[in-house]
Amino acid sequence: MDFAELYWEHQAVLLGEEQAKALPRVSVDELFGAVVSCCEDFCRGGRQKVRFYSDDQELDLLGGGHQRLLPARRDGSFAAYNARLMDLEGLPNYALVVADWHQFNRALWERILSAVQGLAAVVGISHARMDTQVFLGTYKTTPFGVHVDRTSGFHFPVAGTKTMRFWPDRFAQATPELRGALRYERYLEQSTALSARPGQVLYWPSSDWHVAESDGEFSVTWGFGYWLGDGMTSLALEALAQLLMETPGRCRAVPRSALVEEARELREVDTLVDKLARLSADPRLRAAVARGWLEHFSACGYLRPPPLLEHGGAAGAVTLKSMYNLLAAPEAGGAMRVAAGGYSTTVADEPAVWDAIAVLNAGGELPVRADDGAVGRMIDFCLRAGALQLRPDQT
Fold this sequence. Notes:
Elements: H1 2-6, E1 13-15, H2 28-43, E2 50-54, E3 57-59, H3 78-87, E4 94-99, H4 106-123, E5 130-137, E6 151-159, E7 162-167, H5 169-174, E8 192-196, E9 201-204, E10 209-213, E11 219-227, H6 231-246, H7 259-265, H8 267-280, H9 283-298, E12 316-320, E13 327-331, E14 335-340, E15 343-348, H10 351-361, E16 365-368, H11 373-384, E17 388-392
Helix pairs in contact: 6-9
């Protein structure tokens, strides 16, 4: 509670090891495997956000054939990866940024979810999104300069020292030449700098403009971001646009001679606006937004959860993992949608399913039986979503 009252969205702060105990811990070796997996998926054409900079210039990793500059399993560690880039590739000033690496290590993601539950209980779950990032390299300043992210950020150095310099939003707005600057020496007096070493945590609010600094020492930092904004509105607009594209329509030819009259009456514009009004009341729009809402909040705001798990149908009993909640809502046609761990499915809307969800959310235990109908299908889905833990049958 003290952190939320004193610092949350108020000011940047360095949290010492004692203050940071409640926040997640990820080792440099654990992080290496997840980052490599994310980079591998990126090279296979996955929709990952991986950026590499050399001397402050971003390289085209895929189109430019620079995949060799990414960490690989053969490196074995971040330290060995850095040595390869320095010694074999001759890159003394580089930066690698990898987003959403948590998708590739469910155990680490669940560790993060569990640790931020206390924060979410005070400030709520992000309505925009939660994400993870890794920043590593020997870069002396952030290669894209002084910038702002509309996210409350937590950064955890795991190798080397992480230094961040901050400016208040009011100063950056009044000083446009600061925004994006790589050279900002004349504005140092208006800034504040904080440095963290492994075991400590840097936090700053979404309004702070910032840039990373170093003396060229190799460092690895991971972070998670609590984005500010209304992602639910974006979700509704995307769903409405999809419905609009799926609704048949026909372009009407308008002769040049008739354009003046058309401009006066705007009949075609009114037709489109009427169409949008009808679609906004379409039950399919509500269903699409409801599905997104359920999935979003079942994953504590993370839009990109790890993939579903395989489940072999073992017998036993299940309980809900402490970092999850099961969410459900009725759907049309006698169905209900159940969400867990960022995914959702539909099962028959039966009282027994609602009762089973209530038992699990309250910390209770349920048996797993293959012939359990809608309840069994709900439990099987939640196991694949990673939200339940199985106690195998001992008989």
